[in-house]
Amino acid sequence: MPEAIGLVVLLPLLGFLAIALFGPRMSQRGAAYLASGAVGLAFLAAVVTALTPLISSSNWGSYGLYKYDWTLSGSWKVTFGLAADPLSVIMALVVTGVGFLIHVYSIGYMTELGEDGKRHYEKDYRRFFAYLNLFVFAMLLLITADNFIWLLVGWGNVGLSSFLLIGFYKNKPSAVAAARKAFVMNTIGDVGLLLGMFVVIANTGSASFSQALNSPNLGGGEWREWAAMLLLIAAVAKSAQFPLQTWLPDAMEGPTPVSALIHAATMVTAGVYLIVRCHPLFGESTVATIVVPIIGAFTAFYAATCALVQTDLKRVLAYSTMSQLGYMFMAAGVGAYEAAMFHLVAHAFFKALLFLSAGSIIHSLGGEQDMRNMGGLRKNPATRTAWIGFTIGALALSGIPPFAGFFSKEAILGSFPLFGQVTHHYNPIGLEPMYLSVIGWVGLLTAFMTAFYMFRAYMLVFEGPETRLHPHSNPGSMNFVLVVLSFFSVVGGFLAMPGLWNLLHNWFQPLLKTFHRGDEELWFPIQTERLEVVELALGVGAGVAGIVLAVGLYSLTRQRSADNLQPTLTSHTEEQVRAEEASSHSRQGAPIFTPRALDEAEIRRVIAGRDLSPTRPEASGDQPRLRPVLKKRLNPVKLGRQGLTGFLLYGWGFDLLYNLLFAWPGNLTAKFIARFVEPETEKAVDYGLGGAAWEGSKASRKTETGLARNYALGILFGTVALLIYVAVQTVQR
Amino acid sequence: MLSAMTYIPLIGAVIIAILPSRNPNAYRWIALLTTGINFALSLYTTLTFVRGQAGYQFEEKARWIDSIGAGYHMGVDGVSVLMVQLNGLLFLIAILVSWYPIQKRVREYYVAILLLNVGLVGVFCALDFFLFYIFWELVLIPMAILIGVWGGANRVYAAYKFFIYTLVGSLLMLVAIIALYFQAQPLVGRFTLDIVEITNATANRPLDYTFQILAFLAFGSAFAIKVPLWPFHTWLPDAHTEAPTAGSVILAGTMLKMGCYGFIRFNLPLFPDASKDLAPLMIGLAIIAIIYGAMVALVQPDMKKLVAYSSVSHMGFVILGLFTFAYGLGGQSGRTTDRLLLANTQAFEGAVFVMFAHGLLTGGLFLGVGVVYERLHTRDIKTIQNTTRVASRMPVYSTVFMIFAMGSLGLPGISGFVGEFLVMQGAFRVNGWLAFATSFVIIFAAIYLLWMYQRVFFGKVGDYDPAVALSHGAGHHDESHGTLAADNAATNQSGPAAGADNTFHGEHGKHPTPDSEKFGGGGAAGIDTNRVGTDSLPEKGSTHAVPAKGHDTGHGKHHPDPDVLANGAKFPDLNLPEGLALIPLAILSILVGIFPAWVLDFLTTSGSQLTITMVEHSNTLAEIARTVGK
User: Helices A433-462 and A313-333 meet at what angle, rounded to 10?
Assistant: First the structure.
């Protein structure tokens, strides 16, 4: 029943409205159950939609359901509808499925262990679930829209809910700043989408995907390129790709379930979704075909290098997400849409698993996110499930068979001819094979780095000397979710088994447009017929090599000397914020720096085995701070390493660059206008008008001499002038 | 009907003026009743308005001053009925939010505000130049008085500036009206000031081109000052900053629309050739206004100034829409088909939609600023940031304000988006770069509104300064349980924020005594040093009966909770009148955003009607229309 798609969208909205309107009358747990239930039911509805036999047949353009005319203007009506086509349904399954699991996880995660040993709900518990439902609704609106305008509505509102959820800890300045940064960056994307949409609408006269994208009016010319480039801005901003990538690591300030849901599994994939949705537009655009894979490959590489040195567990995962999204862009850019979607689905499972495992660890350590303060957690029974989950997730991400990531990543790497074979399969617009080959090698290198940083994180968290922090066990609901996601991370790859079956291909077949070059048919299936042993071996080999290197390096260095050069990270953890809030509401008004916080600083020193600068009380955690490098002897090798680490730690300094290029000049310009131009305008207009009147009156005052002869002269001149005027008029007639 | 709507506030004003009672509540109730009736009538007009019908409806015609050809002629079309509706709503809200804040010269205040209402309804309904001019000038005086008497510290200067600026414009318009009166005489066949007659008479015999240009400029400068269009906008931030909240709401909500309305009613249909040829100039000014307003708003330290400059930016969109519409009529884009451009009514409809949505959203933002100002007596963003975290104390209010801010920055789904979308699309059809230039403003708007929102509502955790907190918000220790009840009533209809924060809220209501003890650090410091509005008295509303307890306990103790003012002043969420004003406005902004057809249906006929008028009334346009083969 494709009609069930209506329920999919409606249920989370109802959940949100119910909590928003009647929240105060609900119990905390009731609100959480309501929110989870709404998304769970939406998932069931999505399954019902997916089961419809209609999906596998005929073309997708006819799937506009629940049509509604949105009169925009007398001359122009937009017919809205919900699309229940292969793409939207598979996205809906992922969003509601993973969304439901994360809702369930949050029921436990958003509590804290009180001093009395009981669990307490965090402040704003109900609001958290209301926001989560709002997000799921907006995301579903985005993916089920069958036209650009509704897509934009969803697009903007996922930005809003992301803003609300990143800044959920609203008393934490770094979270608030991160929320704003994310929103502003996403607004740039919104503008791109808006303008791209204008191009499409102006040329085709329609906002509906099925009509606009397949319209011959879009042509192959300049306008297609413009539309593709503008839509690409939107995709890049939402999916945190270069050059609009800087918001994603900061977005980790939000609660971990939010990071898992929004900033790993669903919202950030909207960019990939947009490209696949608009593939008739992108696929035939020359510039997009060249630019999108380059952006993807560069971001994949860039983010992987940054992830190599991060000390915050969640930031590692954030960079990793960015990197994996880069893979999806690579695939989508060269037309391997199936591979991109495959990786999107698989990644949603194992990245959510990784985030939630990390969240479990962070939660049981009372909010500690710094990996250097962790260690030896494998042996601890409290974190056993998280250990299993993280390990499976890390293996899947590293592309080790038979985990999901292996299949999806190979599908992407297989779309690039590593050794420059020329086959039309890969080459929609006749690109140089060299170019595709280079991108393929970058992807391979990134796969190696991916495996390395994941197992570096694994070694730091689970192996080595045991942490001094005392992990406490987590609620069963959280562990349950980890188990379910682990299962899907293992079997998710079986959707497309090379050489055996390819469910995804059958699924997407009705959707994807076939491109032609001349009379040659271009087709980008996931490589099912062809098992290229060399490429496969290279892919797996890169992953294994990364793992071996990481494990070897970090088990050999007992003292974590590989991280020797790490700057002191004074992170403002979630726990500290909670402690602050708790203290601020307690009757005595306890000081912000509880004994616990001091304890942490102590632990930090002990673990590192050397004197780190103590946690500075005033330090805010929005950025890790570099310790001043003041050594007696300058060691160039050491300095170089330190410099490189810092460079990577700060994400190649893009924040600084953008501040220098845009934020500061913009601010200065605005200040200049407000301080100088505005008063000058005011003066010019006010005194211009006033001054003219003043001068005019001064001038005319001089004629008021009071002498009768002057006035008589004036009368004389006037009369003469009048006479001449009359005379001229008469003559003319 | 229209006359009743216009003069009922006048009757109310007279009653208030001669009422023997000295009880300010009597004035308030009468004013509320009057504007309530006015609102009901405007609602009735809107609902019974026939949308598809061309021309004016609810027409009232009477002979008046025959010797100069002035008649009494009222009527509304799709554009003006929307404006009248908006006006009715905003005046009701303005009366509500003035309930407690205005404690000085209450009688005069309500007389002034009701007279303002008369003028504004009249301006949108009048169909005779003479009548129109009377109402136009009638608006000016009460507004200047509102600013000058109940305004902030610099109110006299602002009132003068407002008065002189708009008066200069009005006089230019008067000259143009008189000139038009003589020019139209041969066309109509007799001297008349009837707008409809003159407009119809110019249909087949367009006005002289030079005259069109001159008259366009004279009318245009009056309207441009009112809009206000760069560079005539400098009166606006001053007027807004100094005006009382209700004044700002009316100013932003409907008075600025008088200018836009003037362009729609006079400039476009009467002077189509001039509109078309001067469109590049107007579009240029609009683009400057849009970007300039946003740039200046980026660095404003004062909440109200920030919103005022964002208003400049948004009103630029209206002008942009109107004149891309006019420009498009020429069909000179080269890119898109000329047929599309000839019917580029989207830009027009978008422009009117922006007028409506801006009334709701910016009205809401000004109301919101007023709410904060009532509690903290400052609008300085940095000071508020260092003083308190509003979001924790006023969850309902934070949610509502968030809706207005998001709407104002063009979040899809809220009414602000639809208008901007249509205008930008109309502009795009004329020239893609216009849309590109204005699109930056959406990013700027996101930056400045979020910047303000986060600072005001979330405060700054680290830099909490009890000394600053002490000096602010002192005038509010007479908050009592009476308002708490109202408070909770408002909470029940609240948004998501309320739901979650309510635990704290409820606790607040249940245990007043320990609460005030807890927050009671240094209650002796009652002097409000930073108070801007020196005349506004501390609140002594009727429900504010019981003085707060616990102000004599626990002196000088540093309180670590930045949510609470150090002197123990409570910080109530929206009180009943504020809630009644803000929450429906927020809901309406969302509904209009989701169902824009409610508004756009009124405009479709007006848009096509205007297109036809403009094409018919111009030689060149008619020529183009023929060649394109409409």
Answer: 160
Nearest residue in B to A591, CA atom: B560
CA B174 to chain centroid, in Å, comes to 25
Cβ within 8 Å of residue B310, ≥6 positions away: B293, B294, B297, B362, B365, B408, B445, B448, B449
Which H/E stretch holds residue B524? Answer: none
Question: By the 8 A CB rule, do A313 and A362 touch?
Answer: yes
Confirm or reject contact between B292 and chain A (CB < 8 A): yes
Domains of chain A, residue spans = 145-553, 665-732
Q: Region of B377 please: left (phi>0), alpha (psi -120 to 50) or beta.
A: left
CB crowding A500-523: b at 16 or more within 10 Å, else e = eebebbebbebbbeebeeeeeebe
Structural contact between residues B16 and B111, judged by C-beta atoms closer than 8 angstroms: yes
- All residues at 6 or more sequence positions from A510 whose CB lies less than 8 Å from its CB, including other chains: A55, A56, A57, A58, A59, A60, A85, A86
Taking the C-alpha atoms of residue B330 and residue B342, their distance in angstroms, rounded to an integer, is 7
Mean pLDDT of A626-635: 53
Which positions in chain B touch A202 (Cβ < 8 Å)? 335-336, 425, 428-429
**Cross-strand bridge partners of residue A64:** A83
Say if the Cβ atoms of A170 and B458 lie within 8 Å.
yes
CB contact under 8 Å between A191 and B442, yes or no, is yes
CA distance B34 to B92: 9
SS3 content of chain B, % helix, strand, coil (to 5): 70, 5, 25
B229-247: pLDDT as tens digits: 888 888 888 888 888 888 8
A339-364 pLDDT, tens digit per residue, is 888 889 999 999 999 999 998 888 88
- With an 8 Å Cβ cutoff, are B340 and A674 in contact? no
Question: Max CA-CA distance within chain B?
Answer: 85
Share of chain B above pLDDT 90, in %: 15
pLDDT > 70 fraction of chain A, expressed in percent and rounded? 78
**Token match 């809009």: residue?**
B227
Tokens, residue A259? 């990071």
Residues of B in contact with A152 (CB under 8 A): 412
Please identify which residue in the block is written with the tokens 């299936």: A525
Least confidently predicted of A54-68, A394-408, B374-388? A54-68
Q: Which residues of A touch B349 (CB under 8 A)?
A: 72-74
Contact flag B450-A673 (C-beta cutoff 8 Å) = no
User: CB–CB of B294/B446 below 8 Å?
Assistant: no
A 10 A CB-CB count for B337 gives 13
C-alpha–C-alpha distance, residues A538 and A544, integer Å: 10
Contact B234 A201 (CB under 8 A): no
Three-state helix/strand/coil letters over A371-400: HHHCCCHHHCHHHHHHHHHHHHHHHHHCCC
Note which residues in 335-394 of chain B have CB less than 8 A from chain A.
Answer: 335-336, 340, 343, 345-346, 349-350, 389, 391-392
Tell me if A107 sits within 8 A of A53, measured CB to CB: no
What pLDDT score does B212 carry? 86
- What's the CA gap between B500 and B544, in Å, rounded? 27
CA distance, residue B518 to nearest chain A CA (Å): 7
- The complex scores an ipTM of 0.78
**A153/B460 touch (CB, cutoff 8 Å), yes or no:** no
Q: Are B607 and B345 in contact (CB under 8 A)?
A: yes
What is the reported pTM? 0.80
Q: Give the pLDDT confidence of A230-258 residue by residue, as tens digits.
A: 999 999 999 989 888 888 888 888 888 89
Residues of chain A positioned with their CB less than 8 A from the CB of B447: 184
DSSP string covering A154-203? HHHHHHHHHHHHHTTSTT-HHHHHHHHHHHHHHHHHHHHHHHHHHHHHHH
